[in-house]
Amino acid sequence: MGGGKRFAVLLCAEDSDYVKKRHGGYYGVFVEMLAEEGETWDVFKVANGEFPDDDGIADFDGFVITGSCNDAHGNDVWICKLIALLSKLDSLNKKVLGICFGHQILSRALGGKTGRAITGWDIGVTSIHLSSSSSKLFSSLKIPTTLSVIECHRDEVRELPPKAEVIAWSEKTGVEMFRCGDHILGIQGHPEYTKDILFHLIDRLLQLSFIEEAYADVLKAGLVKVEPDKEAWKKLCTGFLKGRL
Fold first, then answer.
1. What DSSP letter does each residue of 179-244 carry, written as one string?
2. Could you give all domains of the chain from N- to C-terminal order, each with its CATH number?
3. pLDDT digits 0-9 by tens, 165-224
4. Which residues form the Glutamine amidotransferase domain (predicted)?
């Protein structure tokens, strides 16, 4: 049972028609992975300027920041407002889980630096390695120390915030996961994604000329051969958000 807890998804992207039709939008994708019986899940479309009221923040047990097509190092009005909100949530010791763009903007809000990844795009299923300290942190979950996760990003955390700790890395990305205290967790990958969502995203990136057709074909061929560790990620993310680590 969820014990009547209340959580909010801070939606930083516009839903594609595909994701809306297949999964009920990105909000639906996160709820499917994270929600448990007895909980309330709200959504705030922060990319459209929709934010929780300052007075209402205390009512939530935790927040999830989604991915986005925007750059976490940008200065759009909504991004600056989101940074201020995240700083406030940190000061209140609220549980905050940041995914992809959410991971990057969380780092920035707490004093870290983000930017274009030196190694370029990382798209596909990536193996990430948990640090020895995170292996202890997640020991009750009984998950492997190497996990596969879907990735789709060309930005990264370049410099950690003060007091933050890297808890996972990959061959391509030095900060795959970071934590700050017991209430902040950033994940560069997309634990919530299914392979069909990534297939669709590859097509969108190709249409927008972000990637070349030959590269898109290679990515799709590679996806057929591997699977993300979705159940392990579900355990990790719910365990963190709900204080079960």
1. EETTTEEEESSBTT--HHHHHHHHHHHHHTTSS-HHHHHHHHHHHTT----HHHHHHHHHHHHTT-
2. 6-242 (3.40.50.880)
3. 999 999 999 999 999 999 999 999 999 999 999 999 999 999 999 999 999 999 999 998
4. 57-194
